[in-house]
Amino acid sequence: MSSAEPSRRPPAPSRTRTILEATTPKRALKSFDNLVALANDQEVLRQAARKLVWRDRGEPVVQINDLEDCLNHALKGGARAGALAFGLRSGVNLFLLLFRVFKTPKDLQFAIVRHAIFGIDSLRFGSMIGSFVAIYKFLYNAIPLVTSSTPSSPAESPAVLPLYISPPSHHGHSNMQPLHRILTETEKFVDTPGALEMPSRNSGSSGLNTPGGLSAKALEHQLWIRKKGLRRHAFIAGAIAGAIAIMFERKDRRVGYAQQLFVRGLQGSWNHWTHKKGIHIPHGDVIVFTLCCAQIMYSFTMRPDAIPRSYYNWIHQAAKTVPQSVHANMTLTRDRYLDVGDIQTLLSHKVRIPTPANRSLLLDLVNTASTNPAQLPHHGPCGMVHPWMDSCTMVQVERFVEVFTWMVPIYGALHLIPTMIFKRNVFFKKPAPLIGQTLLNTIRSSTFLGIFVIIFQGALCFKVNAYELFSSPQRRPFKLPAWLVRFFISKPSFWILGAMSGMSLFIEAQRRRGELAMYVLPKALESYWHVSLGKLGVKRSIFRGGESVFTAIAMGMFMSTYQNSPQHLSSVARRLMYQLMGPN
């Protein structure tokens, strides 16, 4: 055979089909592939739906290249935040409704539930939050695009902050300093606005040993929030967005929202400043709470016009007091006269029925007020403050039980809802431990308020009894200075009672003390303001749109802290804002 003759190879044998391939129709195989694809698509949809309602920790910032991207990012974020706020407000309304819906007539139950879910309050709240997020996102991301200029030379290009990544040690751990110390040092490195560039997402840093054990996304977010030059952008964007968004709420609620937002912003700014200066005040939250309670309870007893009427009524409801007793005590102590109508209401009360001894005391007060007002006592006797009980000690027991049982469902909602939101995976997998912890926290918080009330009530009875004892030469065991005896029934003594009641905050958990201090701070500041205006003889008024200006200042401070030093905000405020706003 010549070499030029092509070699002949036997043809390759054809593959024999398997029994499964021979017996399974092609249409069935295609259907199986479709089922697999559908299952994968469902998983993708499930993950996408989860991201719509929950942000994972360390979410990377969204790169904004132009104003069109900025507008799309703002609209999407605003719609998402508005829907979440609407659902959250409706959920809270529905939870609180469960405790009283069965007490209402059946023909009204559906209407009440429908209003709780789709009522105007939920719509207003969702519109307020959604508009704030949309406006803030647009302004915060648009301001750098409008104000920045393209560098003309490499020397003018922004510096890139090194990540300070070091190889792991022999023990498998990085030799890096804690992340917060590294980031604090980076603040000194970046001296000009825009001096920190975002690290690339495709830099392949997944295999690097990042500081603090954080992922690349988490580190990217931490470096983003430390970028210099953005604090003023966050303040401007937060101020404008807050001033516009607050207008969606009812007018009677705007001041309340503005007050709470102001103290949150003030808290963040104060924590940032004290951390920067190295200042630490032990039990500062308790001190703030004590001073606030002193002013609030003074206003409640002596200057009810200095606090909002709704808050004044809430204190009455929470403390289980009789309004006529509090008012009669105020007029006797402050104005040296007695409103006979208050005493007549106490005498005819259907629930708090006066005891025989206290009824006789009340009748004597009415007779003295009618015949010889100058002989009226300059304080409210205990028989007038709690006419349904003779014993001052038993009043404390009764008051504690009433306050405790009334606050259990309220504090239960306040503890349970954040647990279900922020620890939902653990809650649904192992609900028993979290429910038990929530129950303990509810009991603790209800005990705190019960102790608060009985401290004030007990101290009030004590100072009244002390005055009656030491002002009588026949009864007093020893003589006290006259100024001290008069102080027992003076107006400033009620300020002291409020401060004493504030010490009950030590019963609460450490993490909640700051939250409670921030809750009462705006009420106390408002009371101080109104009392000061009254002392100066200034007519109390507020210019039109003042709540918008107040909210603008509040959200400017809050968002400036959130974007640059979020660790200085309270945990609840920071996590809620992150779920609504994201990193940018």
UniProtKB/TrEMBL annotation:
Lineage, highest ranks first: Eukaryota, Fungi, Dikarya, Basidiomycota, Agaricomycotina
Annotated source species: Exidia glandulosa HHB12029
Protein name: Transmembrane protein 135 N-terminal domain-containing protein
Presence of keyword Transmembrane: yes
Regions crossing the membrane: 403-422, 442-462, 483-507
Domain of life: Eukaryota
InterPro entries in the record: Tmem135 (IPR026749)
Keywords: Membrane, Transmembrane, Transmembrane helix
Keyword S-adenosyl-L-methionine: no
